[in-house]
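Researcher: Last one for today. Full complex below.
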Amino acid sequence: MSHPESQHGSMDLEHQEHHVVGPKVYLLIFFTLLVCTGLTTWVAFIDLGVLNPVIALAIACFKAGLVVLFFMHIHYSSKLLKLTVASGLFMFLVLITMTLSDYISRAWGLW
Amino acid sequence: MDSPAIATVNGEMQAEAHAHPAYLRHHFETVEQQREAASFGMWLFLLTEVMFFGGMFMAYLIYRNWYHAAFVAGSNTLNIWLGTINTAVLICSSFTMAMAVYSAEKRRRKSLVTYLILTIVLGLAFLGIKAVEYAEKFELHQVPGASFSIEQFVHPTDPKAVALAPDMAEKTQVYFSLYFAMTGMHALHMIIGISILLILVVRALGGAYTEGHMSTIENFGLYWHFVDIVWIFLFPLLYLISRYR
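Model: Here's the assembly. Have a good evening.
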């Protein structure tokens, strides 16, 4: 009886065969990241008022998302890892939101 | 051959004959489970790192709102092109690291070692450019502390710059403190990463990581990409969003 190497898909999902991400995906992500870097520097020289930080951070979030999903393999990972990353980021956003809501709702200068 | 029953029988046979890879620890059932546990642990560590850097990002956010004019003036002393080049260098190093993980997966020792060395070279290039930027800050008296000079912000030479009142000009030190704290902690992470990479190269030359067990390379890749992500946010916040136009 040979070892069932190709057992993924039929067996318990937790014991899936590991997904190998190849150079094609990495190259595509790599060039997208470089283009985004050029784009964000270019946009920095255009006066868009309050939109400048918004666009810069949106591009940064997009780039970070690509790195997490493809370079860090989360796109191909189990639900456990996806949930771990998502809950960590959610926690981080909760902390930022609570700190900022404290700062903007204080009666600055009145005490 | 694909039925769950056969897979279970096979599992029992493995246990009896001890026919599993040497690197599979006994408290794990399968190699995949061991690998998953290692990634899970690494991600938990990275989440604590998110909170660590998150505190500094939060401080930056609040102080930038308080002393906006000082932060704009401070930000414009940075060289946007060196920042852009460094971002590109770091993205290249993330790509070579990803390729190192792929090489380990494919059990190609030579290309694993090559990609790890390329990652080290790119990491050192990043630190070199950073050192040039730091040196300039010392020369121009822009390092917070006794030799800090507010003169350049009260009477700026750049025609596009807004002259600051002396008390606001003092607050540029807050910007530079955060600049050095954030890029400094980031650089420390790079130095730690490069040190670990050197060990990984030596061990890879000895044949490690290309015989099926590569959790170390994989988890180090996660760390390296995380450090890249920190810079992806530092770059726009410190260099880009406050340009004079």
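Chain A has two domains: 21-72, 77-104. Residues 1-15 of chain A have pLDDT under 50 and may be disordered.
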